Amino acid sequence: MIFANVVWPALYLSQRYYSWWAITLSLLIETGVLYGLTRKTFPKCLLLAFAANAVSTLIGFLAFIWIGFAWELIVSYTLYEMIPLGTFNPFGWIATTILAAFFSCTIEWAVIKYLFKIPTTNIFYWLFFAANLVTAAIALITLFTNPVIL
After folding, report:
1. Do 68 and 9 touch, CB atoms closer than 8 A?
2. Which pTM value belongs to this model?
3. Which of 8, 20, 52, 53 sits CB 3.0–4.6 Å from 111 for a disulfide?
4. Per residue in 11-38, pLDDT tens?
5. What is the spatial distance between Cα 111 and Cα 97, in angstroms, rounded to a whole number?
């Protein structure tokens, strides 16, 4: 957990999203999705998922926190001015979860497409995004079922 004087949803979500169990769950889900999308062997799909998640985690561990912070600043000076919800509201949590899935998916898709030279389509991207969204949603749910204790 990162300690800060100011907190925002991405700071909390990143603690779960980049934890060992979430990455393991992501590997399992994404390996299955890659197997269905690419028709490569299961070990090859596991390698693809592992490499894509390794790069995504290395980049995302710090970058996602700051992207979430930028998102929160933009929304707090626009939407929250019209609708005073505050930082920790259902819209903020859902948007942060979608942002996490989109951020991870885009990095992982780029690794698969450009590093491994696997041809992809728009359908590939959005099905892979759905797999990332499942993992991000589970990480979000655990924040409510097992809250962070500071």
Report:
1. yes
2. 0.85
3. 52
4. 888 888 888 888 899 999 999 999 999 9
5. 21
- Contact in structure between 22 and 138 (CB atoms under 8 Å): yes
Show the 3-state SS of the chain: CCCCCCCCHHHHHHHHHCCHHHHHHHHHHHHHHHHHHHCCCHHHHHHHHHHHHHHHHHHHHHHHHHHHHHHHHHHHCCHHHHCCCCCCCHHHHHHHHHHHHHHHHHHHHHHHHHHCCCCCCHHHHHHHHHHHHHHHHHHHHHHHHCCCCC
Residue with tokens 């609708």: 83
* Both tokens assigned to 126: 């959005």
